[in-house]
Amino acid sequence: MFNKIIYLNTHSLGAVVALWAVAPCTHAQPAGGAYPERPIRMIAAQSAGSSLDTILRIFAQKMTDVLGQQIVVDNRGGAGGTIGVELAARSPADGYTLLAGASSSMIVSSYTYKKLPFDTLKDFAPISLFANVEAVFVVNPSLPIKGVKDFLALAKAQPGKLHMGSAGVGSSSHLAGLLFVSFIGINSTHVPYKGGGPMAAAIVANELQWAISPAAALVGLIRAGRLRAIAISSGKRSSILPELPTVAEAGVPGYDFGSWNGVLAPAGTPRAIINQVHGVMRKVAAMPDVKDQFASQGLAPTASISPEEFAKMIRDDYATIGKVVKAAGIKPE
């Protein structure tokens, strides 16, 4: 019976309300039967069509199959993902609301927003990673740009004319782009959008000229010729776009940027539920068909050894990303 995922956006909240109206209203450890006894809401802190949403759909379907209950994916994009994160932080700690978050919204936002309505370290119980995400440098294909050196030459010849897109202030594409700008010293106007999907559409329409954004959501547009990929942001080449050099190889030594996606629960969620969901995620990450589907996006499914390992990684990333933000000269907005 439970073999489908329901995908929602902000305008579909009525569907969520209707779904929960027929389920027991419980705000603590479920009494009686084993968890889960009803559908689980998975808040995706990015818009539909974003990189997180693209790969979450693969993972969530298999989680649905293993758990025997629907994963109701509720896309909450905007403000660099912080809208969805805040919603999850304020949700009941009963195991029936989980958060699919990214390092951009969970960590980077702490440095790019003056004040946030949540504290990642205090308000969440980490469960597991499900992907490490590489980003790809894309430009509008009408530009006379075949590689990073061409981009640099055009940017210097036309200062301020090449507008940089991002999925929002504090998003990974924002940080990746500003870090690149800080390395090469060009003048490029930042134009934030409410998610990776709208940002990509703007580059296709030549409203923006470039971005460094998670590859998973852009591979289809790249293959269709609607975006031109010129480099990979991480320190090693992509398995799905192996012909592309890294940004460092292409002429910007030292540049290296990546991000992650993971699942967390509101703080106070029972440890037994945290352990159960973690075990399911480990099982899903090992499935051959999941590996194949992730590979088609240039990724590999990744599950943390334990919730504690994921929690430590988040704490460590605060220090590491703080240094990157400082190097990029990003100021809180």
Structure characterization notes:
This protein is α/β, with parallel strands linked by helices. The longest helix has 22 residues, at 307-328. The chain contains twelve helices and ten strands.
Which tags fit this structure?
333 residues; 8-stranded mixed sheet; alpha/beta; disordered N terminus; 39% helix; two-stranded parallel sheet; 10 strands; 12 helices
Oligomeric composition of the shown chains: single chain
Helix-and-strand structural type: alpha/beta
Distance between the termini: 47 Å
Strand content: 15-25%
Which parts are unreliable, with pLDDT below 50 for 5 consecutive residues or more?
1-32
Shape: globular
The helix content, as a percent range, equals: 25-40%
Total strands: 10
Q: Roughly what is the average pLDDT, rounded to an integer?
A: 85
Main beta-sheet strand count, sense and barrel state: 8 strands, mixed
Q: Helix-strand pattern, N to C?
A: EHEHEHEHHEHEHEHEHEEHHH
Radius of gyration: 20 Å
Tally the helices: what do you get?
A: 12
Outline:
By secondary structure, the chain is of the alpha/beta class. Helix content is 39%, strand content 18%.
Blueprint (SSEs and pairs):
Elements: E1 6-8, H1 13-21, E2 40-44, H2 51-67, E3 71-75, H3 82-89, E4 97-102, H4 103-112, H5 120-123, E5 124-139, H6 148-157, E6 164-166, H7 172-184, E7 190-192, H8 196-204, E8 210-214, H9 219-223, E9 228-232, E10 258-266, H10 271-285, H11 288-295, H12 307-328
Parallel strand pairs: 1-3, 2-3, 2-4, 6-7
Antiparallel strand pairs: 4-10, 5-8, 5-9, 5-10
Helix pairs in contact: 2-10, 4-12, 7-12
